[in-house]
Automatic annotation (TrEMBL):
Protein name: Acetyltransferase, GNAT family protein
InterPro entries named in the record: Acyl_CoA_acyltransferase, Bact_Acetyltransf, DUF3335, GNAT_dom
GO MF annotation terms: acyltransferase activity, transferring groups other than amino-acyl groups
Lineage: Bacteria, Pseudomonadati, Pseudomonadota, Gammaproteobacteria, Chromatiales
Keyword Acyltransferase belongs to the record: yes
Superkingdom as given in the UniProt entry: Bacteria
PROSITE patterns: GNAT
SUPFAM superfamilies: Acyl-CoA N-acyltransferases (Nat)
Species of the source: Oceanococcus atlanticus
Pfam families, A to Z: Acetyltransf_1 (PF00583), DUF3335 (PF11814)
Record domain N-acetyltransferase: where: 4-150
Length: 369
């Protein structure tokens, strides 16, 4: 009998993959359409295991753009091949391939009653870090597990930050601010009403398209009103986001809102610093217990070049870690919590627009020095 061979899945494997999906899973199956999509996609590793031309298993890992995080999306082993170590062989090969593509962590979800799979993952170093209730079609809970697949030093400092999903396309700033404030004060409200209140307080009125986003000084003022100490850092003076608006009337309104924010900051003791934001600065603030909101360009995440606020949860020698309030099409809430971003990637990601704006909001408990 020939040995098992593993190789990248090809279009001609579609029928075999569909057959494995039907044989190995009773629910939450990937459709033929989705399998065809993943065969053709570039942001994945998809391996098929064969013996004598017969497919006995496959593994699919998703590689999310702009992060160093990978997700084991599906691992299937045919009934007749179980007990041969194929699951372990598939997963370790996928880890190696994923590491070569610059990912640092692998995450997965597994049904909490699937002891065989849980045992496999634990034997390979995966650790449980949470539970996702009512995750599967049959309402079973899923264990959340993670493994560091490329060594990086332990986090220098980490904040426990709850995750909140923005409920509109334009409220990433309020969602990130609520996460940051709730990390510092567990009683902080996390609700759609609070999300919209924060947006109304901090909006720039207009953006390139749709509703306005949030101004860093507006977010700092909103946090200060809620009893926190806040400051805004901006790498240049003058009104922000003007390059995305063509109408002279809209530009005038954005300029007026900017001026009002700056005046209100002066009146209310909110510091506005006109300086670049270095990663050393971020590390120092996190070490003293502060929470930081950073404006990024989503180009490296979704190729849309939109301004987007995220909350930094930790930083170490290799990565910054962010809570992103907006899951993408192929992401779940699990993927958006403490997402690792390589430092070199973050430097480019945290510059926005033709003016190369870099800005952050630092939020601390009011008793901080």
């Amino acid at each position: 009998m020939t040995e098992l061979s593993l190789r990248a899945a090809r279009p001609e494997d579609l029928d075999a993959l569909c057959a494995l999906e039907q044989r190995c899973f009773s629910s939450d199956r990937l459709s033929r359409r989705r399998l065809r999509h993943w065969i053709a996609a570039s942001n994945r590793e998809l391996l098929i295991a064969l013996r004598d031309g017969v497919a006995l298993g496959y593994g699919l890992v998703l590689l999310h753009r702009g992060t160093r995080l990978a997700r084991l999306y599906s691992l299937a082993v045919a009934p007749e091949a179980r007990g041969l170590g194929l699951g372990k062989q598939l997963l370790t090969t996928l880890e190696a391939a994923t590491t070569r593509r610059g990912r640092l962590y692998m995450r997965l979800e597994v049904a909490e009653d699937n002891q065989q799979a849980i045992g496999l993952y634990q034997s390979l170093g995966y650790q449980r870090f949470g539970t996702w209730n009512d995750y599967y079609e049959d309402h079973q809970n899923a264990l959340r597990m993670q493994k560091r697949i490329r060594y990086v030093p332990e986090n220098l400092q980490a904040n426990r930050v709850p995750w909140y999903q923005q409920t509109t396309p334009f409220t990433c700033g309020p969602a990130a601010a609520m996460m940051a404030m709730a990390s510092l004060r567990p009683t902080q409200e996390l609700s759609r009403g609070e999300e919209l209140d924060l947006w109304r307080e901090a909006t720039t009125i207009y953006m390139t398209a749709g509703h306005g986003g949030c101004h860093p000084v507006g977010l700092a003022l909103a946090a200060q009103r809620r009893g926190f100490k806040a400051q805004a850092l901006i790498n240049r003076q003058g009104p922000l986001f003007l390059d995305g608006v063509r109408s002279s009337e809209k530009k005038a309104l954005i300029e007026l809102v900017h001026e009002r924010f700056i005046a209100s900051a002066q009146d209310n003791g909110v510091t506005v610093r006109y300086q670049d934001v270095s990663q050393d600065d971020l590390a120092r603030w996190i070490a003293r217990g502060a929470m930081i909101l950073v404006l990024i360009s989503t180009w490296r995440l979704d190729r849309k070049k939109a301004p987007h606020w995220v909350a930094i949860t930790a930083i170490d020698e290799e990565c910054l870690y962010i809570n992103d309030p907006d899951p993408g099409d192929d992401q779940s809430a699990l993927d958006c919590q403490s997402m690792p971003i390589a430092r070199s990637d973050f430097d480019r990601m945290s510059l926005f627009g033709r003016d190369r704006l870099r800005t952050a909001v630092v939020i601390e408990n009011a008793r901080a020095d």
